[in-house]
Amino acid sequence: MKKFLVFLCVIALFAMAVLVFRAPLKQLAYDTVTSDMFVRVDNDAFDPGPVIGSNFPGVTATWQGREVRLLGEFAGSRGTVFVATRSTDWCPYCMKQLIQLQQHKAAYDQAGIGIVAMTYDDPALQQAFIDQWGIEYPILHDVDTLSFRTLGILNKSYQPGDDAYGIPYPGTIVINPDGVVVGKLFLEAYSLRVDALSALDYALTALAEAD
């Protein structure tokens, strides 16, 4: 009986430790799996999304409780980077990418380039992430997969009813002030992303070459 009580105490202490340290342990796990996620260039042939030189078709989205169709209100003087990503709730690569973009938002602002992100998450989940990490650029909610489908980046590995149905192939689309797509960064491996400053350099080059 005494051994059984000791066993129960050990189990209870372990459960309490898990509850107390759950958030730090989760963050540690995320940091571990994302340690090598950033690359400097898009070096594969994977190329979904609108054709370079075509007009950006707009979105069917919500932001702060209202509908959004065009991205002009979020554009910088030189253009916009539209970042399609999977989830602010369960995808560690996506979360780290969006956090890094916030860390370098001042550089984008100084370059005259606006940042707009989009996920399929419920707006309440997006807001929790925004509040936790102090995200200052807009994260739009794709309505009924219409934006990602129209852009040609809806991940077709998932079907309606799957938890992940509605996620895009993660990537970045560069749009000039006239609404023309001038560049794209899409990597086939969802666990790899072009880092924020390299993406900014790419966007500046693409916009300059399109002038």
Please describe the topology of this protein.
Layout: H1 2-33, E1 38-39, E2 61-63, E3 66-68, E4 79-84, H2 92-103, H3 105-111, E5 113-119, H4 123-133, E6 139-142, H5 146-151, E7 171-175, E8 181-186, E9 193-194, H6 196-210
Parallel strand pairs: 1-9, 4-5, 5-6
Antiparallel strand pairs: 2-3, 2-6, 4-7, 7-8
Write the CATH architecture name of the largest domain.
3-Layer(aba) Sandwich
Show unreliable segments: none
Gross geometry:
globular
Helix content: 25-40%
Q: N-to-C terminal Cα separation, in Å? A: 81 Å
Beta-strand fraction estimate: 15-25%
Secondary structure: number of strands: 9
Question: What can you see in these coordinates?
Answer:
It holds the Pfam family AhpC-TSA. Residues 50-205 form the Thioredoxin domain. It comes from Seongchinamella sediminis. This protein has 211 residues and is an alpha/beta fold. The protein has 6 helices and 9 strands. β5 (113-119), α4 and β6 form a beta-alpha-beta unit. The protein folds into 2 domains: 1-35; 39-210, Glutaredoxin, CATH 3.40.30. It is globular and about 65 Å long. The strands form 2 sheets. The chain has a 7-stranded mixed sheet with strand order 3-2-6-5-4-7-8. A two-stranded parallel ribbon has the order 1-9. 39% of the residues lie in helices and 18% in strands.
